[in-house]
Amino acid sequence: MNQVLTGEERMKLFLDCEFTRLNRDTKLISLALVSEAGHEFYVELTDTYQVADCSDFVIQNVLPQLNLPEHGKPLVEAQTSLLAFLSDLGGPLEICSDAPDWDWDLFCQLAYVDHRWPRNVANRATNLILLFRHLEADEIGDVTLPELPHHALLDARLLADLYRRLTAGSNRGNGHG
Length: 177
Known about the structure:
Elements: E1 11-19, E2 28-35, E3 40-45, H1 56-61, H2 68-71, E4 72-73, H3 75-88, E5 93-97, H4 100-111, E6 126-127, H5 128-133, H6 137-140, H7 152-167
Parallel strand pairs: 1-5, 3-4, 5-6
Antiparallel strand pairs: 1-2, 2-3
């Protein structure tokens, strides 16, 4: 049974990825999702890239933050874990990113398995930057925008928190997907 996903009913999941470099051949290093309710998924890939694939920035700022013994998985295991996480959340689910031009394709590499898309997940990302533009300047005025630490899980947590703070007491965060 296919579900029709509407903006009002979707649980938002905040996505962040770390990847090897800013080019079309980039490779996924780590991926995190944090739900509005606080559920978290985080994985570091062990077989999708080599250090030689990484930019100097990534080598200096991203790789030192990884904890492969605790969070590392090969691609196939990461896909299985992600699909189980998404399934456990029920749905419908809306993936939100501040950089969907980069993060969405990397998310799809994990979520699209055996020519099947998770039926409880919307098939496009919500751009948080565009969503935040719908908020009035006075609603944003008291919120300090943090510098992201270039760690997928920490960044996804910050995005979720920022969304919650910007939409607190307002329905403006709904339906702009």
